[in-house]
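ok so i was messing around last nite and threw this chain in just to see what happens. nothing serious, just curious
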Amino acid sequence: MADLYPDYFARFYDLIYHEVRDSVDNRFYLERIRETKGKVLEIGVGTGRLFTLGLENNADIYGIDISPSMLDILRAKLLPEQNFRISLQDIINFKLDSSFDLIIAPFRVFMHLTEKEDQLRSLNNVCHHLNPGGRFIFDVFVPDLKPLITGLNNVVDFDGEYEPGKRVKRIVSTKPDVINQIINISFRLEWNDHKSDYKREWKTSLRFFFRYELEHLVERSLFRKYTICGDFDGNELYPGSKEFIITCNK
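result:
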C-alpha cells in the first residue's frame, strides 16, 4: 500500500499541484464526471482537486482516500452536510453501500500499488462497486527509460509563494529498482514563515507499468473489456505517448 501523505505535504498539496498537474488532466476527468448521469466515485480523492469541481458541476460524487491529513483539508472545504461523501478507505478493501456508474483513480493512484496481488484485488473490488455498463478510468505514466535507469538528483519541480512573502520549494530525487519496476522517490519540502526555515523529507514508492503488462493485468480481472489511450485527448497509443489512460468496462 501507499505511504500516507504527511500533514506538511498535504498543507502545500493544492498549491503545488495546481501548477504542475491541473492543466494536464483536469479537463479530461471533469468531462467524464459531467457526462455521467449516475453516481461517481473518486479513489485517491486527496484534498479534492477534482472532487470539488465535480460538486460545483452538480455531480453526485463521492471520494475515498487513505490519508487522514489530505481528507482533513478536503473536509474544511466542504459544507458539513456534504461530509458524508468522503471516507477514509483504500482501493483494495473499500466497501460502500452504493454502486457507481463511473469510478476514477486519477493521477497515478494505481501506481502506489506495488504488488500484483493488490493490483488485481483492487481492480476486482472496483468492478464489484460498478453498475452494469459502468466504467473505471485510471492513468499511469508511460515509462521513460533513461530517467528510470539513471534516476533524478535534487531536481526542483516547484518554487513559489504560498503566502505573500513566504515561499515553499519542492526538491525531488529518485532511485530506480528496475528489476522490481519500482521508483523510490524522495520529496524534500523547504519553506519559511518569516520566523524560521523548515525542511521536511517524505519518501514513497511507485510501480511503473508497460503496455502489455497492463493489458494482461486487466484481462485477468473481472472487467469484460477495456481500452488504453495514449493521452488525455483520447488518441491511440503512439511513439510519443507519455500517458496510459485505461478505461475498464463492466
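not much to say yet. The chain has two domains: 7-142+209-249, 145-207.
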